[in-house]
Design brief:
Structural class: alpha/beta
Number of helices: 15
Strand order of the largest sheet: 5-4-6-7-1-8-14-13-9-10
Largest sheet: 10 strands, mixed
Radius of gyration: 20 Å
Strand content: 15-25%
CATH class of the largest domain: Alpha Beta
CATH topology of the largest domain: Peroxisomal Thiolase, Chain A, domain 1
Shape: globular
Distance between the termini: 15 Å
CATH superfamily of the largest domain: Thiolase/Chalcone synthase
Order of helices and strands: EHEEHHHEHHHEHEHEHEHEHEHHHEEEE
Number of strands: 14
Helix content: 25-40%
Number of domains: 2
Length: 414
């Protein structure tokens, strides 16, 4: 059954902060030009390592005092939301602010602030009287979305969604669902991450032998390569303006694409090791809900993080779902920017949406020696590839505790 205009969800604005670009144009250009955003980094208590760090102008939309009181995740979110609204041509009125919702995915929140406070009171023999009175609002789970509402005066609903590394996609899904329920007219949806701010995440991945190491930072994130040795921890964010199609058409908005299908499911098998059967089910369901067949998907952005087992499991699922799909091409964005955790799915989707216009799939870098277990037909490596057509993009995001979230975006057509 054909959906009505009020049942279709479209993307009308994009704001982002990534390790290799602070707006969509810069980010896309660097993806096509093989420019990595991974750099050398030193973490308190852990030491020298590598990370993907953002270099956006945090003072563009916040004062220095607001930055001191708030969080890095909140600052990333505020920057991305402002950029997304500007991109969408929206200057929210008071009535629109009451009908706008903020739905932001995160991997974890509060670790950075807690570690910082413990470090600070360690200078004063751990006397808790020196503990910041800003700590509670900084560490509550709804913080990033809440900081956005305060900054912009948005009075509609807000919440953050803890979904590990599937959170960016889940933020988009939740925004779409809230629009379909009629709870909001504008959804600011996506994901953010401040993960490099905590030494704990580096120590934990290192203890799992899952933290990437390489003499050249730009070559450290290498999904599918035989010599891959783990994750590059990154920060960032991407927020989309989502609207029902009828509203977007009424205001003559530019439309990047239609968020046509999605699925979220659970492995229910292991805290860390992915389940390729459940991943395949998630992809199939998202494709089915979008009214498409696997052969209709022209670009798949893989989740692959650069861990030996994780990459293989996903490739098993991809081969099962996309067998006999000669027009389907596969790529990976983490090879450029590392793993931005809660922001990963949203950033990866954003980086691929321009493919509807330029008919180009960005490549995967750092695959010097392809692991045979990760071989996929039409895996684009080394350089971008021009395609005869791009009508549908599938975006994979999988996270710890076995949470999977897949989105499908179609080329907009009335």
């Amino acid at each position: 059954m054909k959906k009505t205009e009020c049942e279709r969800i479209v993307i009308t604005g994009i704001g982002l902060a990534s390790p290799n670009g602070s707006n969509l144009q810069e980010y896309r250009r660097n993806l096509l030009d093989s420019i990595s955003g991974v750099e050398a980094y030193s973490v308190r208590y852990f030491g020298d390592t590598l990370a993907g760090l953002c270099h956006f102008d945090a003072l563009k939309y916040q004062t220095r005092k607001e930055l001191r009181v708030g969080t890095r995740a909140g600052s990333v979110a505020i920057y991305c939301v402002h950029e997304a609204l500007a991109d969408a041509g929206l200057d929210l009125t008071d009535s629109e602010k009451a009908r706008t919702g903020v739905f932001i995915g995160i991997t974890e929140h509060g670790n950075v602030e807690t570690e910082n406070e413990i470090y600070e009171i360690s200078k004063y023999e751990y006397q808790t009287k020196y503990w910041s009175h800003h700590h509670n609002p900084r560490t509550v789970a709804n913080n990033p979305a809440g900081e956005v509402t305060i900054n912009l005066g948005i009075t509609g609903p807000h919440f953050t969604l803890g979904a590990a590394c599937a959170a960016g996609n889940l933020g988009c899904v939740t925004g779409a669902q809230q629009l379909l329920l009629g709870e909001v007219d504008i959804a600011l949806a996506g994901g953010v991450s401040e993960s490099p701010g905590t030494f704990g995440i580096f120590a934990a991945f290192n203890s799992q032998n899952a933290l990437a190491k390489h003499a050249e930072p730009a070559k450290a994130s290498r999904p599918f390569d035989q010599s891959r040795n783990g994750i590059v921890v990154s920060e960032g964010g991407a927020i989309f303006v989502l609207e029902r199609l009828d509203r977007a058409l009424t205001r003559k908005a530019r439309i990047y694409g239609e968020l046509a299908g999605w699925c979220c499911n659970s492995d229910a098998t292991d805290t860390v090791l992915p389940n390729s059967v459940r991943q395949a089910e998630c992809m199939r369901q998202a494709i089915s809900r979008s009214g498409l067949q696997p052969s209709d998907i022209h670009i798949v952005n893989t989740h692959a993080t650069g861990t030996p087992a994780g990459d293989i499991r996903e490739c098993e699922a991809l081969r099962e779902v996309f067998a006999n799909c000669p027009e389907t091409h596969f790529t990976n964005t983490k090879s450029f920017i590392g793993h931005s955790m809660g922001a990963a799915g949203a950033l990866e989707l954003a980086g691929n949406l321009p493919s509807f216009d330029d008919l180009t799939v960005h490549h995967t870098i750092n695959v010097d020696d392809l692991d045979p277990a990760c071989a996929l037909p039409n895996l684009v490596i080394g350089q971008p590839k021009k395609l005869p057509r791009v009508d549908a993009i599938l975006n994979n995001s999988f996270g710890m505790l076995g949470i999977n979230c897949v989105t499908v975006v179609k080329r907009f057509s009335e």
